[in-house]
Specification:
- By secondary structure, the protein is an alpha/beta fold.
- Helix content is 44%, strand content 10%.
- The protein contains 9 helices and 5 strands; from the N terminus they run αβαβαβααβαβααα.
- Helix 6 runs parallel beside helix 7.
- It is globular and about 60 Å long.
Length: 220
């Protein structure tokens, strides 16, 4: 097999895996996306497990190679989390096909706020790679600022998981505020591959239903 052929096959396998994870996220019965209007307040899984909200930037053109949330959803399910996962993006694409799945004049900030700040949302997860073309994350600046302010004034930080790489651009102010938060025990991950194990390790007591009787040393 030539080097070129091997390289092509490697790329195609990566694309296929990305597409598979996107499909799993879109089809997960307990993943809510913009097309899902009603909160799952009466669902037994919501009552026992609660929900996780995936803050952070979304690919402007919904390019699957820039979609970091598909990995988080897959990891949470692999780790045994059975609750709801709120993914603030559309399911399946942009344009007429997407708009047809929404009722009336859709208000994305209202959809997100209703879920992110709901008492049943027991953890938030953010990854901010700050790609200037696809993952700029301007709205994320406000969201993380909101969280920093809450922690600064006494809100618990144990259910907040955040990360960005050291080479992320335009992060001077977030790094400034993070230095204050670190004094309160809230740290960030610098590598996406580390964010997921950290989530699994630290989020156990917040995401496992108390009635399950699972030992705290076992993630989820």
């Amino acid at each position: 097999m030539s080097t070129q052929t091997s390289s092509i096959e490697s790329v195609l396998r990566a694309i296929s895996e990305d597409a598979r994870l996107m499909q799993c996220m879109w089809e997960d019965p307990r993943v809510q996306m913009y097309q899902d209007a009603e909160l799952p307040l009466n669902d037994p899984f919501f009552k026992s497990w609660g929900a996780v909200f995936l803050l952070g930037p979304t690919s402007r053109n919904q390019l699957i190679e820039f979609n970091w949330r598909k990995f988080v959803v897959a990891y949470l399910r692999w780790a045994g989390f059975s609750g709801w996962i709120y993914v603030p993006e559309n399911r399946g694409g942009y344009g007429k096909e997407w708009n047809a799945g929404l009722a009336g004049e859709f208000d994305a900030p209202e959809w997100e706020t209703a879920r992110w700040l709901h008492p049943g949302t027991r953890a938030t997860i953010s990854w901010i790679p700050r790609d200037e073309h696809e993952l700029l994350g301007l709205n994320t600046n406000w969201e993380e600022g909101f969280q920093c302010g809450a922690v600064e004034h006494g809100a618990p930080h144990e259910g907040i998981f955040i990360g960005w790489p050291d080479n992320a651009k335009r992060m001077k102010l977030p790094n400034h505020y993070l230095a204050r938060m670190e004094k309160k025990g809230w740290s960030r991950e610098r590598n996406f591959s580390n964010l997921l194990p950290t989530l699994c390790e630290k989020a156990c007591k917040y995401l496992v239903p108390a009635s399950d009787g699972i030992d705290d040393d076992i993630p989820f």
